[in-house]
Amino acid sequence: MSRLAIKICGLSTPDTVGAAMRADATHLGFVHFPKSPRHVEADQLRALAAPVPAHIGRVAVLVDPTDETLALLTATNALTAFQLHGKESPARVAAIRQRFNIPVWKAISVKTRADVESAKAYTGAADLLLFDAKTPEGAALPGGMGLRFDWTLLRGVPISLPWCLSGGLGIDNVAEAIRITGAPMIDVSSGVESAPGIKSVDKIMAFCKAAQPS
Known about the structure:
GO molecular function, one term: phosphoribosylanthranilate isomerase activity
Family: Belongs to the TrpF family.
Strand content: 15-25%
Number of strands: 10
Order of helices and strands: EHEHEHEHEHEEHEEEH
Catalytic activity: N-(5-phospho-beta-D-ribosyl)anthranilate = 1-(2-carboxyphenylamino)-1-deoxy-D-ribulose 5-phosphate
Helix content: 25-40%
Pathway: Amino-acid biosynthesis; L-tryptophan biosynthesis; L-tryptophan from chorismate: step 3/5
Protein name: N-(5'-phosphoribosyl)anthranilate isomerase
């Protein structure tokens, strides 16, 4: 069995970055979106990513970013991927990938089977799809709200790209989520927090332990 990939998202302090590395997370996520309680500026992101070894992915999480923002983050030389959580079209995703020469992940907001099917449009544009729960209309944030979707919606859908499961995962349900979906990669943010935007070292360690097959 290939190793499960685990991304701890919304990291903003050196101690929680360290915890994620000690827990054998394969990817670390840094949110660059001012409306989020997990937002970090470009210079913070650079500093947080500095001690991370090359084999661990460092992902910037963005919402409909401008090219100016993408250039600012690219200049940190700290990133291995952009993760897009807005309304970016397949053409926009492909353009970002080509211009900045960095892998691009696209979050797909899921509530229905049709939402899952819509991900096919990103074949050839994105490098990875991240299936997340659709947030309510008018919500301030497009993700990181602890919402989950019906995981059985992913059954039987041919997914031609590498993919990741996100949305409402936590210590108590991550093993079930993996069993139901067969996800090769999982992503957690609010599920390892003690308060919005405040990651818990203990919860990060416990989540990664719960996710790994015995």
